[in-house]
Design brief:
about 20% strand, Glucose Permease (Domain IIA), globular
């Protein structure tokens, strides 16, 4: 029997702590200099922005003590490193193959994301460099009613999520619970998958749409199924690592979320901030978008 080195466990945990701290920084580093848009308001349930951010960071660092979370964080950081060589520097450097529509009906708001470093969802997280977080808002950019403590308080919760283009479903997850504590900043440490319930669709060679945080039990497609643009694939929820109901959407260069590089894609038939519909548009954080 080999004798266990008592120091190996300490080093393993120290390494995990470094990985998780790095991941937390990457996820919070989306807003860059040059983006002057005001931060959207937080619900009363947050009890203030500093309290919200403190809870979020405490949740992320607490993942150190959850083996499944440590493994997922390590996979994401390792994949981020390997995908860096394929990172797309700007939309002009990429020629997209498929034509994309917004993955929902009606008017939504771009809470996070854009085609450049200043508006990026998470510029240094290569898979999510060109990702978007979409929500529904009122005239004051409130995403909720009442105090925002319950999932049903959020305007986008339960809204149909649509395939953004024709394609083949290559991966999905269902059955992950909606995260508790909506609007407070707490992250669900007991979730099986920080992506929550998601669907990955192959739209073209090297173009895979990824739609996440769906309501458990709402996924309406199966792996191997061919879907058409505009077909309902699930309902907007709060599963996985989500601090409030929203749709996370991005296009990536391979099916594996953890090994992928994100791709900048323009949308067709989009009305931006009430203007006439246009095509080949890249939405930006802080704008209202409507699919026509």
């Amino acid at each position: 029997m080999s004798r266990r080195n008592p120091g190996s466990g300490r080093w393993r945990y120290a390494g995990s702590a470094v990985l998780l701290a790095l991941l937390a920084w990457l996820l919070l580093a989306g807003r860059r200099g040059g983006d002057t848009r005001p931060e959207p308001p937080l619900p009363p349930a947050a009890r203030g922005r500093w309290a919200f951010q403190a809870r979020y960071m405490a949740s992320v660092l607490s993942m150190l003590f959850v083996p499944s979370m440590r493994r997922q964080a390590a996979r994401q950081i390792s994949g981020n490193s390997s995908a860096a060589a394929r990172a797309v520097a700007e939309p002009a450097a990429y020629r997209q193959e498929a034509r994309y529509s917004l993955p929902f009906r009606g008017e939504w708001y771009v809470y996070n994301g854009g085609p450049d470093e200043a508006t990026s969802h998470s510029w240094d997280v290569v898979a999510q460099r060109y990702a978007y977080d979409f929500v529904m808002v009122d005239g004051s950019l409130r995403r909720w009613s009442r105090a925002g403590e319950h999932l049903e308080d959020y305007r986008c919760y339960g809204a149909p999520i649509l395939a953004p283009a024709d394609g083949l479903v290559v991966e999905l997850r269902d059955g992950v619970r909606d995260a508790p504590g909506a609007g407070t900043g707490w992250v669900d440490l007991l979730t099986d998958d920080f992506r929550g319930n998601f669907v990955t669709i192959r739209h073209a060679e090297g173009e895979y749409g990824f739609l996440a945080h769906l309501i458990p039990g709402s996924v309406r497609v199966a792996v191997g199924e061919r879907v058409k643009a505009g077909q309902e694939i699930g309902r907007c929820g709060n599963s996985g690592h989500s601090t409030e109901p929203h749709l996370h959407f991005h296009v990536q260069d391979r099916a594996d979320f953890f090994q992928a590089a994100g791709l900048p894609v323009a949308f067709d038939g989009v009305s931006l901030d009430g203007e006439a519909p246009a095509s080949r548009l890249y939405p930006r954080r802080g704008t209202r978008v409507r699919s026509t």
